[in-house]
# Entry
Amino acid sequence: MGEPHASGSTAKPDHIPTLEERVDTLSNQVILLISHFCESANKSVEMAAPDNEVDGFLSPKEERERDEAKKGKVCLPKFVPPQPFDGTMKETKSFISSLILYIYGRKAEFPSNELKIMFALLYIQGGKVQYWKNEAINLIAAGQEPFKDFKDFTMQLEAQFRDLSPKATAIRKLKTL
# Structure
């Protein structure tokens, strides 16, 4: 029950913000907090002691990283090699994605399509895929090129081991629940 105002009408409920309005408000607050944090971090960096006073507090690894950064050497992220692939349909796309991420993350180590393909073949082991791998290696050893390039390799791998009917697979899984 609302109490009557001076005009004699009952009070109407205040505007209830929508979810989008709440998200916008929170986003603005987060942006404001981040900017305040960055400003205070910049001020503390300006006030920080020179590096020679910090030497005793860094671990040997941190000191090496700091020294490499001073030399202008870039520290790249560590890319995790893919998990071995055994030809399981549900793992095919994941395996190919992890291969691409690893190889392109370390481009300097894989300058040619042959090296990319050979690296990928190292992580194809056992299960349904072993025969496919052995055939590819036999063709390569015989001087033939079973794949035009790395893209062709990934396309052939996916075509051979992907789920041919993901919709039917999903329905079958739902029925077994």
